[in-house]
Amino acid sequence: MQIESKNPTVKNPAAQFAGDVWLDVVAAPHTDDQRMTVANVRFAPGARTAWHSHARGQYLRVTQGVARFGTRDGNVLDVHPGETIYIAPGEEHFHASAAGSFMEHIAMLESGDDPSATTIWLEHITDDDYNGH
Asked: Cβ of 111: how many Cβ atoms within 10 Å?
């Protein structure tokens, strides 16, 4: 058993995020047979990810603010603190904060068989995507 030191907060890269988004790793694999990564992610108002998918899916637990999650079919869901959303393996989606609201969620995902393909990043979303049009 061990207490792990806090890693520095990092700002997520503009190639994959629009607006200000910060990440704190909570847990990461220690050995080759471990797959789970957990992170606390904070979004400034209106900040958003680019389209992306995860090889093994992802769980996101909203802890503060209002989150927006969208899929390629134009479906956009607003998710509130205490609610968890599950994104299936390979489903292209985005996460964002609602306009005018900071948002924080806990992201939980497992590494893919090929760790470099755990998350596949795609193009940035449009304002129409964000608004569900």
From this structure: 20
* Residue pLDDT, tens place only, 12-44: 999 999 999 999 999 998 898 899 999 999 999
- Closest by CA position to 78, among listed 91, 86, 69: 69
Give the β-pairing of 67-71 and 17-18.
unpaired
- Contact in structure between 126 and 72 (CB atoms under 8 Å): no
Question: Which domains are delineated in the chain?
Answer: 10-131 (2.60.120.10)
Quick: pLDDT tens for 78-87: 999 999 999 9
pTM metric for this prediction: 0.92
